[in-house]
Design brief:
The complex is a heterodimer of chains A (377) and B (580). Chain A is of the alpha/beta class and 377 residues long. Helices cover 37% and strands 13% of the residues of chain A. In chain A, helix 3 crosses helix 11, helix 6 packs across helix 13 and helix 7 packs across helix 13. In chain B, helix 14 crosses helix 19 and helix 16 crosses helix 26. Chain B contains 27 helices and no strands. Chain B is mostly helical. Chain B is globular.
Chain lengths: 377, 580
């Protein structure tokens, strides 16, 4: 961990006493760890032994009893907002490690995950075991409705405090940035926007795409950060630019690489990273006035039909293997031992905009309304 | 719950007389079927009305209706939907009516092929068509637009599919078969005497067409307009794919959006009511249109007639037909197949860009598809089987007047036609997410939705089939002591076999492509192909969608081929209509 980088340097809010962020996943310290991991300063733990799991509270850690109980249940149902192939990759690796426990992946946008969880609860349908979205506010909401089970996976002990809900209900599984990107075949690098305000230049009219906060938790977080920075007037000006609207934060990249819209306003940086690696024409822009950081928690449903499989899967999610998988796919992790790809952007180089979960929960409804009214749908 | 109880009570007298007359199990079975039907159709609608008149706190209120008609976000989609409906109705008639006339009345070469291709447009799921058209006519990357820009060095696209015009255009491509079928049907029933007379008096084909034929088929044309209008009004897929990216809603997408967090189900219910009202009114109007004219010259039997010689005008006629079909079938299917085997659909299809990995990922790598294919097939089989049995029973009741409630049964079986899929889904969601009957979270709620939606089609089809069977055979069975049920089983059903099989196939096709109701009713355990395609669309996984789309089409056409085989051998009117 880079000792010169204090959390206070990144975000004033972290100067508050630790008690103040009991609910909020206050992200200053998160960044500190992310940054440390990203710089590769910490040697990576190459293997993960069950022994590493013995420091937590009694319920936590992977015991043979837990594995057996999970096998008996046979499956874990995962509602997740992480990109489909990442979700499938994590699921397959888990299944390889714990034969006999199948992962049912249900991937959709954060707000749709939330919609399903709430609708199913209303109908007393008990389907979901593990819930993961990119709208940290969802978890405040779910916890307030007593819909989350308390469970602290062993590995999060190594995570920075602010990656954790202090009450032990949810933890940040992954982190990413919602920033612009462009197609270098269609826009020369020197012409690209540098700041969020640059997007209001008339030359981008009809050339941009945005994802939607009614679908994507990433975009809820993005909108909250942008509104903090420039008030909602910015959105209204942006809406006059004839912006194409897609739903998922994964979709802008497909519009950029296909050339349908050469410039993406938001989306998510790991999709750009992965697509660029595949050889597609896309370059990320980190605006000088700030990059919104998105934190995506994971939790176990209180009515989980496969509670033991849910615990085992949660242990796995926060452990080294899954976290390294995420990092290889361009995401940022709270695990101190992960090794970032050499070509991954270092968070130390960026000005980050952060939001806390409590505030997101309070503002989400208003943010969605503002967006819909500004953009028309 | 007034809906289901009312008809069930009214069954009383009819039941007792029926029971007194013939001591067999038929009457109670009919009564049960009628009661089942009443609940099937009535319950969801009762919930829509009930919920629309409540606040979230369950106090009676008209506030939801007030919101639906004053809130700008809700009012505007109503206007958009009506505009789109009018546009689609108009375009459908402009394309479908002339094509119908050409196929029914002229010596146009390859008429059978054209008929089959129109049928192919009809069974293509509109959401798939809309998806293909985003690849074809997206303003910047769409294949047609890039071609146009290369050709003309123009900076502006030829056509932007993400617009009201684009939505009208695409929806019309899959609605024009209504106008086509109605006009063809009408023309085949009209004697050509009047036209021959006009010709004999020196009128050219054009003049004859406009002064004689057009007025005769006007009711059919208006009817086609109304059906296309309604289809456009109630369609969810095309607006979700084409309107939302452009920043506007239609009524269906708005209803769907009202289910999003934070949900406003009461408003969704109230907002469904005007849609239902328009639908009921227009279908009533259409029925009157067709009934009022009475077709004095329509003899009800096909008559031999001399086809109009087109001469050199066959060429522009073929251009018209194949032009429309290129837009609805050839171009979309081409781009779909191309995307299914591409690494990146927008890049040229070179060897480096060619791949079969999409098939691997879609079928094996993506957990949701395997489950969804299983669910879709299961639901298709179940809906088609139960639906056909139900339709046959109902058609038998109505046709043979087994009990005195035939008109009621007929009305109930046809009623779902007037209930837009998404409105039905709102009702089913409200009705079956709470005790005593929690179907939400299972395949059963989708089954109920599909059964309800497909019932009118199946019913109409089997009624036609039944009509073609002589009642004397059944009477012989009854005279020899067979009960009504036994007669149905041993006489009527075997005679109607091919028609019934065709019904099964049509219901199956309807069920496997359903999206507008499924989109509100599915859960993680009950995903179907259409919903998975929609989910993938939102994530931009276009190549995978193309694979699933290709599979869906292959499956659909395999079934259509079966219907065609049946139709070739037997007397199913609906199939014959397409095949003649």
């Amino acid at each position: 961990m880079s000792p010169t980088l204090t959390s206070a340097a990144l975000r004033p809010r972290t100067a508050e006493p630790a008690g103040a962020s009991v609910r909020g996943l206050c992200l200053g310290a998160v960044l500190c760890v992310l940054v440390a991991g990203c710089t590769g300063a910490t040697p990576a733990a190459t293997t993960q032994t069950p022994a590493a799991a013995n420091t937590q509270a009694a319920a936590s850690g992977v015991s043979q009893t837990l594995i057996d109980a999970a096998r008996k249940e046979g499956a874990v149902v995962w509602y997740t907002s992480v990109e489909t192939s990442v979700a499938e990759e994590v699921a397959r690796k888990f299944e390889a490690k714990y034969a006999g426990v199948k992962v049912e992946v249900n991937r959709t946008g954060s707000e749709r995950v939330m919609q399903r969880v709430l609708q199913e609860a209303q109908a007393s349908v008990k389907a979901v075991d593990v819930i993961h979205t990119s709208d940290a506010g969802n978890f405040v909401d779910l916890k307030d409705r007593n819909m989350l089970a308390k469970y602290v996976p062993a590995a999060v002990e190594k995570y920075p405090t602010n990656f954790k809900n202090a009450d032990g209900f949810y933890f940040v599984w992954r982190s990413s940035m919602s920033v612009p990107a462009y197609n270098p075949k269609l826009i020369p690098a020197q012409d690209t926007p540098r700041t969020w305000q640059d997007l209001l230049d008339p030359k981008w009219k009809g050339k941009m795409v945005s994802a939607h906060p009614s679908y994507s938790g990433t975009i809820v977080t993005w909108e909250a950060a942008i509104t903090d920075l420039y008030k909602s007037d910015f959105l209204e000006s942006l809406a006059k630019q004839d912006v194409m609207l897609v739903q998922s934060a994964q979709d802008p990249v497909t519009k950029v690489t296909s050339g349908e819209r050469p410039l993406a306003i938001n989306g998510t940086d790991y999709s750009y990273f992965v697509d660029k690696k595949k050889g597609n024409p896309v370059e990320v822009i980190y605006p000088t006035d700030g990059s919104p950081l998105v934190t995506s928690p994971s939790a176990i449903a209180v009515d989980a039909p496969h509670p033991n499989a849910a615990r085992l899967f949660t242990e796995y999610l926060f452990d080294m293997e899954a976290q390294q998988t995420l990092v290889d796919d361009g995401l940022y992790s709270g695990h101190p031992d992960v090794k970032y790809p050499a070509d991954r952007k270092k968070l130390t180089d960026l000005k980050l905009l952060t939001e806390d979960d409590l505030k997101l929960q309070q503002q989400a409804e208003e943010l969605k309304k503002t967006f819909t009214q500004a953009f028309g749908a | 719950m007034i809906g289901p109880a009312g008809p069930a009570l009214r069954l009383g007298p009819a039941l007792s007389t029926a029971w007194g007359r013939r001591l067999d199990l038929s009457a109670p079975v009919w009564a049960l079927v009628a009661a089942f039907l009443a609940i099937l159709v009535g319950l969801p609608l009762a919930f829509v009305f009930g919920t629309s008149l409540q606040t979230a706190q369950l106090t009676p209120s008209l506030a939801n209706y007030a919101a639906a008609f004053t809130d700008r976000d809700l009012l505007q989609p109503i206007l958009v939907s009506l505009g789109v409906g009018l546009g689609v109705g108009g375009l459908s008639v402009l394309a479908g009516a002339p094509m119908g006339w050409l196929v029914a009345r002229t010596d146009l070469p390859g008429k059978r092929v054209i008929r089959n291709l129109v049928l192919a447009s009809f069974v293509t799921p509109p959401f798939l068509g809309a998806f293909c058209w985003t690849l074809l006519a997206g303003p910047n990357a769409g294949l047609i637009n890039t071609f146009w820009k290369d050709l003309t060095h123009s900076a502006t696209p030829l056509f932007n599919i993400y617009s009201v015009g684009g939505l009208i255009f695409v929806t019309a491509l899959y609605c024009f078969p209504f106008a086509f079928a109605l006009v063809t049907n009408a023309l085949e029933l009209i004697s050509s005497d009047a036209e021959d007379a006009a010709n004999g008096l020196g009128a050219g084909p054009l003049r004859t067409g406009f002064t004689i034929t057009l007025p005769l088929v006007m009711p059919a044309i208006l009817s086609g307009f109304i059906l296309a209008f309604l289809q456009a009004l109630t369609e969810f897929g095309p607006p979700a794919i084409l309107a939302l990216p452009a920043g506007f809603h239609t009524m269906t997408t708005r209803i769907w959006a009202l289910f999003q967090v934070p949900p406003r189900l009461e408003v969704a219910a109230a907002y469904s009511v005007p849609m239902l009202a328009v639908s009921v009114l227009l279908l009533g109007l259409q029925k009157r249109l067709l009934a009022r004219r009475g077709y004095a010259t329509v003899l009800g039997k096909s008559v031999a007639r001399r086809p109009i010689g087109l001469g050199w005008t066959a060429l522009p006629a073929l251009v018209l037909c194949y032009g429309v079909l290129s837009l609805s079938i050839f171009l979309p299917y081409f781009i779909l197949i191309r995307a299914a085997v591409s690494r990146a659909w927008a890049q040229p299809l070179t060897l480096a860009n060619f791949t079969l990995d999409n098939f691997g990922f879609a079928l094996f790598g993506y957990g949701a598809t395997v489950q969804a294919i299983g669910n879709t097939v299961r639901l298709g089989l179940l809906t088609a089987s139960v639906g056909t049995v139900l339709a046959v029973t109902l058609a038998y009741v109505v046709n043979r007047r087994a009990i005195g409630i035939a008109p009621l049964v007929s009305a109930l079986a046809t009623a779902p036609l007037a209930v837009p899929g998404i409105v039905l889904a709102v009702g089913l969601f409200l009705a079956y997410t709470r005790p005593p009957l929690v179907l939400y979270g299972t395949l059963w709620i989708l089954f109920v939705a599909y059964l309800t939606r497909e019932l009118p089609v199946g019913f109409a089809q089997t009624v036609n089939t039944m009509r073609s069977i002589h009642v004397e055979l059944e009477e012989a069975s009854r005279i020899l002591g067979g009960t009504a049920l036994r007669t149905l089983r041993d006489i009527t059903v075997p005679l109607a076999r091919t028609g019934v099989a065709a019904t099964w196939c049509f219901v199956f096709i309807g069920a496997i492509r359903e999206l507008s109701a499924s989109i509100l009713l599915f859960t993680s355990q009950s995903r179907v192909i259409s919903v998975v395609i929609y989910d993938l669309k939102e994530e931009g996984k276009w190549e995978v969608i193309s694979v699933l789309g290709v599979l869906l089409l292959v499956c659909t056409f395999a079934i259509v081929a079966v219907v065609n085989q049946l139709g070739g051998r037997a007397s199913s009117p609906q199939v014959e209509r397409w095949n003649r």
